[in-house]
Amino acid sequence: MLYNNKTIAYEMIFVISIILFIIPINFAQASNYLVHPDEIITYTPVSIKHNSSEEKLFFDGMNYFKMKQFDNAIKAFDQLTKESPNCAEAYAYLSQSKYYKNISSTHPIADPSILQLDDKAIELEPNNPLFHCFRALHSPIYYVVEYDLEKALALNPKLSYAYYCKGIVSEIKKDDQAAIDNFTKAIDLEPSDDIYYMDRGDIYYQLDDYAKAMEDYKMVLKLNPNNSDAYFSIGDINYSLENYDEALNGYNKAIEIDPNYTDAYYSRGMIYFQKGNYYKAANECSKSIALDNECADAYYWRGWSMYELGHYTEAIHDFSYAINYYEEPEPDAYRGRALAYKSLGDNEMYHININLYNKYNKP
What SS3 string covers 303-336? Predict the structure, then answer.
């Protein structure tokens, strides 16, 4: 393992940042987790000879990384660190691959080795602005994040990816205007990048500025017609506006592009629920659960569908799963479970759950 003498120190950084709430930065709150075009390099690292086995290993790793096959990318870059220990890119992309694998998992955990790899990459190549962006992306401590992003921009003031990362940091800090400003700066520098518009559109959506959000999502699709997230988000806007047929079109298109789009199935279920087609609603939610058996929203909406169909025991089971998997208490899941118990004549469980609903249903 790299930097064994630092392992305890890195673990302490993670523990202290969590215990003291110094800055629990979590990019999973903001990013769409697409591998960004600016992260892909096409040159052969200077420490690697052309037409060598190390060069093949490097580009194999990059191809796996680009395709989001992170397990294979990790194997390739890890092997490259052994065969070419002075290749800074090997450490940087091993780190980034581990990071993406972690945040795409159901239960991401802090991995101190990621920052160790970042440090090694920067030690070997201190003036690479992209490596500073990677470390900023991975660090749990804001002052480290801010230092690295400022360093990246000092090295390359026109690096749009650095402004993109600054936008994500601003979003996590709930500074929406700063996030918009940074994403806009990234767009100004690289107007053909669909991901920048996607993230800015998400901020506008969160602010209920549906017109600007829709404008950005449509620009995403102009630049990348196969961006399933943009279609899904357009569906969300139309659902919020109660334009259910248009919302269904958006979700359908997202699924057409990505048949494993978990959230799009239960979102279709929400529309069928609003239309009173509870069988279809339950069926769509079941498709989401088949893809992700911890999808709280799918259990929630299937629970309400089962309740409306008179399947009260099944409704109780689904509401219970939803309650278990929601990260924060969802009052209406307790209310739904209470009503289902009441329909079964279990007044004791009704009162227990309605009291929980009242407990959590506070402004």
Answer: HHHHHHCCCHHHHHHHHHHHHHHCCCCCHHHHHH
> What's the predicted TM-score (pTM) here?
0.83
DSSP code, position 257: H
C-alpha span between 316 and 337 (Å, rounded): 5
Using alpha carbons, list the distances in angstroms from residue 37 to 31, 82, 91, 355. 14, 27, 19, 50
How far is Cα 198 from Cα 176, in angstroms, rounded to an integer? 15
Distance CA 208, CA 281 (A): 26
Q: Are 250 and 235 in contact (CB under 8 A)?
A: yes
Instruction: Give me the residue label for tokens 């194997």.
Output: 75
Cα–Cα dist 62/72, whole Å: 10
The yes-or-no verdict on residue 35 having pLDDT over 80 is no
**What tens digit of pLDDT does each residue of 81-132 get?**
999 999 999 999 999 999 999 887 766 666 889 999 999 999 999 999 999 9
Token code pair at residue 23: 């800055």
